Each structure stands twice: as structure tokens, then as C-alpha cells.
Amino acid sequence: MRPIHFECQSPDPASTMEFFSKALGWEFEGWHDFPYWLATTGPEEQPGINGAVMPAPDSQPRTVMVMEVPDIVQALEGVTSAGGEMVMPVQDIPGVGQSAYCRDPQGLLFGLFQGLPADPSEGS
Fold first, then answer.
1. pLDDT digits (tens, 9 = 90+) for 35-77
2. Residues 51-82, buried b or exposed e (16+ Cβ, 10 A)?
3. Which of 12, 16, 106, 123 is most buried, judged by most C-beta within 10 A?
4. Count of CB atoms within 10 A of residue 99's CB?
5. Which residues pair with 113 in a beta bridge?
């Protein structure tokens, strides 16, 4: 399972977005009515991933890698059986999928994401 997204959790999202916009040319767009701003880090045809900036829930800055998994429950079982722990339970992201946060045995925070199944009527 590969990283598909990252989240920059910042005590000051506006300053973080201003910095990355000036320093690296990233572009930001608000996502729905949430304090969550999608970050476009480069052209789609180049290798790499996009991410987001959000408020840090505990005012501590961090970057969290998010891995896409085919089955979030099974992935959480793998995390715990390997010695990690779930630190935020599975939460629904309306119209998108489900996510959870975990820590490895050394304390590294990472996210898991399971997208909604593709609608077979789309693309027909």
C-alpha cells in the first residue's frame, strides 16, 4: 500500500499555506465547509502526490502520510498485529470514503484511507 496523500497539520494553516505557496509554488483550495485546504504540489503528469493543510488538533505541527488501503478494517488489524496502534478510529468522509490514524511502535503517526467503491454507472 502506497502513500496517496499527506496532511500538514499546522497551528497556523494560513501561514503554512502562504509559506508553501511562496517557497514551492503550491496551490491551495478549500474543501467544502471544513477547515481543510487541498494542496496541489505540481502538474498531474509528474510523479508525486498532493496533500492538504489543516489545523493541528493539539497545536503541534506535523506532516502525516496517508496510505490507501483496500479494506480499512483489515489494515487496522494488520497495524495492531504488527505492534502499532489506532489513535483515531475509522471516520466517514462523506462522499469520499473512510479514514483512520495510527502510530507505529516508535510513535510515527500515519493515516489509512479506504475510498468508496466505484459507481459502476459512471463512465458508461
1. 999 999 999 999 999 999 999 999 999 999 999 999 999 999 9
2. bbbbebeeeeeeebbbebbeebeebbeebeee
3. 16
4. 20
5. 68, 99
| Cell numbers standing for residue 1 | 500500500
Residue 103 CB partners (closer than 8 Å, separation 6+): 84, 85, 87, 109, 110
Please state the pTM of the whole predicted model: 0.85
CA distance 75 to 107: 18
- Count the neighbouring beta carbons within 10 Å of the beta carbon of residue 102: 21
Q: What are phi and psi of 97, to 5 degrees?
A: 160, -145
- Look up residue 123 and give its DSSP letter: T
- For the record, the C-alpha cell of 24 comes out as 514551492
Residue 48, all three cell numbers: 508525486
* All cell numbers assigned to 54: 489543516
DSSP state of 1: -
Cβ pair 76, 29 in contact under 8 A: no
Predicted local distance difference test score (pLDDT) of residue 120: 63
